Structures are given as C-alpha cells and as structure tokens.
Amino acid sequence: MKKYKIAVIAGDGIGKEVMPEGQRVLDVVASRYGFALDYDELPWSCDYYVKHGSMMPADGLQQIRNHDAVYLGAVGLPSAVPDHISLWGLLIKIRREFDQYANIRPVRLMPGIASPLANRKVGDIDFIIVRENSEGEYSSAGGRMYEGTEREIAVQESIFSRHGTDRIMRYAFELTRRRARKHLTSATKSNGISITMPFWDERFHAVASEYPDVKTDQYHIDILTAHFVRFPDRFDVVVGSNLFGDILSDLGPACTGTIAIAPSANLNPERLYPSMFEPVHGSAPDIYGRNIANPIGMIWSGAMMLDHLGHTEAAEAVVRAIEAVLQEGPKTPDLGGKASTKDVGRAIAEAIS
Ligand code: NAI
Ligand code: MG
C-alpha cells in the first residue's frame, strides 16, 4: 500500500482544534481509496516560541525536507508573540525556503452557504485564483533614509523576473487546460504601473502562444475587483502577481460567504520541495478553546493535498462529503448551527464511508 509522509503542524489557536478533524477525514478517505498517511506531528507554534525562543528548531526545514507534503493549521498568538515574528518564523519561512511559488485558492459557492452577492446560486461561482507567491511587490529590496527627519524617504522595489513570471503563468495555463471552460484571466495594471506590468502582460502573451487551446483575457486590477463582485460567473482561472493575487484571494472567497471554509495550497509544482496545504483563516483566538471552530477549511485543504499527491478521486470524494454536510448539517455556529468542531468532522468522515 502506498504510504505518504505528511508533516503535520497544527500550530496555534483553533489550528489545534481543526487539525484532528482534517486528519480524521483524511484517514477515512485514505483507507477507502487504498493508501495511507503517516503523520509526523510537529509542535512548532507560538507555544514553542515561548519555550525555545524560535517558532521551529534551527534544522526544522531540514527535518521535513523529504516529506510528501506539509499540512498546516494556523499560526498566531498575538497576545504572546508579535504576528510578524510568528508568521515569518514559520509559515512564510516554509513558503519561501521550499519555493512554494504558486498559491492556489479555489473560489466556489457551496450549497447551504448564503453568498453576500444577491441572486447567486450554487454553480454560479466556481473559479480558481493563482497567486505568484515568491517575488513581485513583496520584495525586501529597498530601504529608508533620513529616518525621523523632514527628508525621510522609503523605497521598496518590485521584482519581476522572467523566470518567476513565466513559471507562474505556465502553472496557470497548465491548470486552466485541465478545466472544462479553459479560460484564463490575467490581473494587470499596465496603464498605471508602466514598467513591471507591461512586462507581466508581455510574458502572459508569450506563454499564451504555447497554449492555443486556452482562451485568455486580461483586466486592470481596479475593474477586475468590480467584475469579481458583479460578474463572478465569468471567471474560470485568474492569475495575478503577489500583491494583486493577495487582494483577489481575499475578495474571491468573501464573495462566496465565509473564510472559515476556504482552503489554500502553497505549491512547489516541480516537486523539488514539499508543498503546503492550509485553511485560509487564522488561529481565531476569539473562539479558541470552545470547540466551535468550523473545520471545513482544514478538511478542504486536505482534499487539495490529496489531489496534489495524485489521488484526485479521493479528493473529490472529500469535497462531495463537505457539500453534503453543508447542505444537511450539522453546522458550526459561524454558519448558524449549534454543532461542535468534532460533530462536523465526524459527519464529513461518515459521509465518505
Ligand atoms: P482569523 O482568520 O483568525 O479570524 C477572523 C475571524 O473569523 C474571527 O472572528 C474568527 O473567530 C473567525 N474565524 C476564523 N476561522 C474560523 C473558523 N474556522 N470557524 C469559525 N470562525 C472562524 O483572523 P485574525 O483574527 O485576523 O487573526 C488571528 C491570528 O491568526 C493572528 O495572529 C493572525 O496573524 C493569524 N493569521 C494566521 C493565518 C495563517 O496561519 N495562515 C492567516 C490569517 C491570520
Ligand atoms: Mg492576505
């Protein structure tokens, strides 16, 4: 039987409550589809920081370098550790050092969830955002001068390499080609950002010529955000730079109702390093400890991990089980129900078996 080695980092807050439900569902679907997941549970978190002065051991990345994937709950305990220390010491460190340059977020209106957009029903909103996750606007190139004086300046440069741009485009085209509508939209702003964004457009067109079967279009980011709200049914796959992708990947899931169910993947598509799968939400200290966190974002992220490991049918079975439970309940309080985290995890596991 095929066995996968998974680095499990539950992290902080509700990460610790939703992770066991993710594992519960993964175990059920794995045994049903004839493979096994071997979890390596790592205590890396803000609690770890308080004890040891770092979010993970010095050789932490080395320890999980050869695992098949990383499954992560949430990071952050702002009452004890400043957010920039906890996020950069664990989550962002893994994304950067494992070159997880493609950040993938599905945007899908699920049954049983009310969209904040009027008159939208299941099937109307079903697209994927592909965010460049390694360069672009989020660079550390720049600096400050004359701090604290009237002459103070701050400069931060965007970095768009041909290597970095082409590989995210290519990933997006490959993904689009596998979907029914085969329609890829590029987020740009080449009317205002006059050097890097025309370069982005140029590379989009150059890579597009290798994919004649994929229909393409592009919008400036300002009108694109408006289209997400007004015509979400138009989109199939949307590719954006680090900053534009970041904004779109909060706006998109917001249009489908709740971040508590939204999943994400941080991929190293060449598989030179493990990829990481995590819910979009954070550690939710405001509800931690009450066993009311919605585990669906965690469970859906697990489905994305199975898909990445090549078990597409198993991944689809998990998504179907999520849909069934969203429709029939039980539901956690964020969706208007009274069920606990465990109730929902168990119901989804049962819907599979
Ligand atoms: P958050 O996502 O943790 O919470 C925002 C709101 O949504 C809260 O009211 C929370 O109760 C609710 N919520 C989130 N997930 C939920 C779930 N599964 N079920 C029910 N309700 C849920 O964002 P916030 O409050 O801004 O950040 C809290 C901590 O999490 C901070 O330390 C922040 O840095 C960290 N964070 C970590 C992320 C990650 O690990 N990827 C992502 C976002 C924030
Ligand atoms: Mg964000």
Description:
- This protein has helices at 15-33, 46-52, 60-64, 83-97, 162-177, 196-208, 221-230, 242-255, 296-308, 312-328, 341-352, and strands at residues 2-11, 35-41, 69-74, 102-108, 126-132, 142-145, 153-156, 183-188, 215-220, 237-240, 263-267, 275-279.
- The protein is of the alpha/beta class and 353 residues long.
- The strands form 2 sheets. It has a 10-stranded mixed sheet, sandwiched between helices.
- α7 packs parallel to α8, α9 (296-308) packs antiparallel against α10 (312-328) and α10 (312-328) packs across α11 (341-352).
- The protein is globular, with a radius of gyration of 20 Å.
- The model has no long low-confidence stretch (mean pLDDT 96).
Helices and strands in order:
Blueprint: E1 2-11, H1 15-33, E2 35-41, H2 46-52, H3 60-64, E3 69-74, H4 83-97, E4 102-108, E5 126-132, E6 142-145, E7 153-156, H5 162-177, E8 183-188, H6 196-208, E9 215-220, H7 221-230, E10 237-240, H8 242-255, E11 263-267, E12 275-279, H9 296-308, H10 312-328, H11 341-352
Parallel strand pairs: 1-2, 1-3, 3-12, 5-10, 8-9, 8-10
Antiparallel strand pairs: 4-5, 4-11, 6-7, 11-12
Bound molecules: 1,4-dihydronicotinamide adenine dinucleotide and magnesium ion.
Residues 246, 250 line the site of magnesium ion.
Family: Belongs to the isocitrate and isopropylmalate dehydrogenases family.
Organism: Rugosibacter aromaticivorans
EC number: 1.1.1.83
